[in-house]
Amino acid sequence: MAIYNISFIGAGNVAESLSAGLKAAGHRILSIASRSGDSARVLAEATGAEWRRDLSVPPACDILIIAVTDTAVARLASEAVIPGHTVIAHTAGSVSLEALGRERGAGVLYPLQTFTKGFSPDLRKVPFFIEATDNHTLATLRDLGNVIGAGAWDCDSVQRRHLHVAAVFTNNFSNFMMTTGEAIAAEAGFDPGVLHPLMEETIRKALRTGPAAAQTGPAVRHDGDTIKSHLELLSFSPDYQKLYRLVSKMIAGHHMKNGR
Description:
This protein is α/β, with parallel strands linked by helices. The protein is built from 9 helices and 8 strands.
């Protein structure tokens, strides 16, 4: 396995997890740069790297990973002072390869996972989706994904945007549904924690049988009376009523189409 000197621009959730995983795999973290200051300093100390407040990259850097919000990738890539031999890669799901502004030595290393400060996922279970301007860069990113993750799969920018949308439904939207459920339980005077065993079982069952087969509830049973009763109970929130009505209609339509 090749050992790389790696620098980061960005010190948020993704940078925290990737830098720790790369260091554990034997790679050297040279520098962490972030204009926000303290977060980069803390991450640099944790990885034995140099903390840089500007966007310059050490001459010895083999790979620069830009792990920032999607809207900042292109701007930071253009502002960074990067050695000519350094491979540059971003980690964003919805940003094209072209945003890096290079014809060679540029790529994407997209981890399909949710990242939260203090709750680093097990990277060995995370699939990485890669794209690059040239074969050498693609091979380099494949090495990283295979060493620290569940593997690396070639994926162009259009495919990756589809994956990113799928991830939003799978993670962001489902998480908001649980937030909504807790709010409704609290409205009735219950501790939202009563829903936590249900959350755990929902995910466990979906992984075991597939989410479509695991679907239960009044919509999949086409139980109009229960749906009507629920909508009446949600009269305190027109937004919740609208959400309930739309999702129930989509569930019923999906399963009717598939013969359930």
